[in-house]
Amino acid sequence: MKLNKPKRQEIIEQVEVIDAGAEGNSVAKHNELVIFIPFVVPGDIIDVQITKKKKNFAEGKAIYFHKFSDKRVEAKCPHFGVCGGCKWQTMLYEDQLFYKNKQVIDNLQRIGHIDCTGDEKIIGSEKIFFYRNKLEFTFSSKRWLSEEDIKTLERGTNRNGFGFHVPGFFDKVLEIDYCALQKEPSSHIRNFIRDYAKEKELSYYDIREHKGLLRNIIIRTTTGEDLMLIMVFAEESQEIFPMLDAIAKEFPQITSLMYAINTKFNDTLFDQEIICYKGKDHITEIMPSFRKDREDLRFKIGAKSFYQTNSEQAYILYSTAAELADLKEEDILYDLYTGTGTIANFVAPYVKKVVAIESIEEAITDAKINSKENNINNTHFYAGDMAKILNEEFVKENGQPDIIITDPPRAGMHPSVVEQLLNIGAKKIIYISCNPATQARDVNMLMEKYSVNKIQPVDMFPHTQHVENIIELRLK
Q1: How many other CB atoms are found less than 10 A from the CB of residue 296?
Q2: Which is it for strands 428-433 and 403-406: parallel, antiparallel or unpaired?
Q3: How far, rounded to the nearest angstrom, does the alpha carbon of residue 289 sit from its chain's CA centroid?
Q4: Fewer CB within a 10 Å sphere, N or C end of the chain?
Q5: Rounded distance, CA 84 to CA 81, Å?
Q6: Residue 83 dihedral angles phi and psi, to the nearest 5°
Q7: What is the pLDDT of residues 391-436, one digit of tens each?
């Protein structure tokens, strides 16, 4: 029997990286073949090994550097290159901003056919490290192994891992010692839990076999001193409460110690009971008011609450949107996809009435609490499917909006929602998006009756390719 020889991977030498593209990868070209390569910087000259080849593009990895780009800096994180969270960490921050701005404009022009000559320069983040207020870490019985691990690890050796999922591998977790995205004591808490689990020989979750005690942790912080830890276990056990007691003793600064027992096959917690073990059942974020004549806003954040992951840059995002909206006391404002009502409550003191819609019932409960906590009584919150709720009858009941702020998920707005916005005909629409491609698609449809007045990108996530963008649309 004839055996097929293993296919040798193609190597292309001395290729220059020319752009930074989608999914955090950079881009090179060789004989008209576009190659997407992670963990390199425009200006690098490399040898690239092709790992996947399609008709119009290829994917590869850098195996040798002939020249380093002048846009390059040293990575702060020791896990860079394996952890997929900060693919642009070796790029100078001003160059990251350039490529994010370019990503927004390219999408708006290519997909939306939008004139971007009047676009504003992207607003960068003052903090480029330790800016995240929420991180989730995963336990796995199958740790990601480096080539050195594979060579030296003896059969039967413990392969537990506690950290982040490795991109492309749902059951492999990279062991994390340090993460530069969230302020301390985040890493100290995570490492203490790892050491405690090792000492007590606690089992890590096996996603394939659906067994093991330790499943996930979530750490949430605020710009102040509040700190929430949620421990997620995969089964009931007598080991749970001694572990929680040990964490509480070691870290008395934890203001909200929570736990959940998730026996499902997926990690989502929205349908799970999360129990407050010690402290409060929430933390509180304080955000400055839009105009300085008002008191700061206080947002109550529970275990399931959504809140923008970069608290300080969220204020910049909301302030910019409010400025573009040009709020007036007599205005009726609709806030679509309101989440926990952060934007609704942020703008409410400056308009007559805010009408806000969100699909998640729990988020609307939080939004109402946040209004009450801030003595705001002109917000009206509705839970349900946007495409079904936002109709002619709803507008008749709640009043014709002067301004609509919409901040949909990455998929953008349903075509029927766009159609309804055209029917409503508010004088101004402020469209906030974390996905310039779907934003461009929706704005292109809205341009039937609206013109684009301003485009303002905002960087919420340094060292990643992600970017928020605000577009101000005016009724023609």
Answers
A1: 10
A2: parallel
A3: 24
A4: N
A5: 7
A6: -65, 130
A7: 999 999 999 999 999 999 999 999 999 999 999 999 999 999 999 9
